[in-house]
Specification:
single chain; alpha+beta; Ribosomal Protein L25, Chain P; RNA Polymerase Alpha Subunit, Chain A, domain 2; 2 domains; 6-stranded mixed beta barrel; 4 helices; about 15% helix; about 45% strand
Length: about 210
């Protein structure tokens, strides 16, 4: 994956009051931490930061942050939004060292939906797991986990064990999660397996 460049300025003042002052200047307060080094408080351009966040894949993108001539590679770990304006209020960056592996949540995408056997028969693509937790080298974090649904018919599904992850990337979860399924049209009966699974639950309610 590519590394994106972003510039920032150092912040000497921290705390809620200082953060509000930074925002009034059209910037976003942020911090870089980790790798056994002291945290560094920085300020990012607000317009650029909001553009990056809303462009997607923000939390799986590695950035090279330049602060007064010094460059640091880091990945966003979290960000806060204004509850009213939905603008970015704060960003936490984690430093990454060469060769380090990170646990990240990667978005799951269904591809070839238009040619899916089940979709052509009136079914719909249902993304059951919207993001997958994986362990990946810092320089090989996938932008997304793409699940090909072209061959799926109605009531078919794809689980984690059925997909091939990129080289060096491993699943960080425990269960064989369902990623994507093709659900029948509204009003159509569910698959026999689904009905059978529902019967014990119905009986337990009586």
């Amino acid at each position: 994956m590519s590394v994106k460049q972003i510039s920032a300025t150092a912040r000497t003042q921290v705390g809620k009051g200082a953060a509000r002052a930074v925002r009034r200047e059209g910037k976003v307060p942020a911090v870089i931490y980790g790798a056994g080094k002291p945290p560094v408080s920085i300020a990012l351009d607000a317009k650029e930061t909001n553009r990056l966040v809303y462009a997607g894949h923000f939390l799986t993108t590695v950035f090279e942050i330049e602060v007064e001539g010094s460059k640091t590679r880091a990945i966003p770990r979290d960000y806060a939004l204004d509850p009213v304006k939905d603008t970015v209020e704060h960003v936490d960056f984690l430093r990454i060292d060469a060769g380090s592996r990170l646990r990240v949540d990667v978005p799951v995408h269904a591809v070839n939906a238009a040619t899916s056997v089940g979709v052509k028969r009136g079914g719909s693509v249902n993304i059951v797991t919207h993001s997958l937790s994986v362990l990946a080298p810092a320089d090989k974090i996938p932008d997304s986990i793409d699940v090909d649904v072209a061959a799926l018919d109605i009531n078919d599904s794809v689980h984690v064990s059925q997909i091939k992850l990129p080289e060096g990337v491993s699943y960080a979860g425990q269960d064989d999660a369902t990623l994507v399924s093709i659900v029948p049209p509204v009003g159509e009966e569910a698959a026999p397996e689904a009905e059978a699974a529902a019967e014990p639950a119905d009986a337990a309610k009586k």
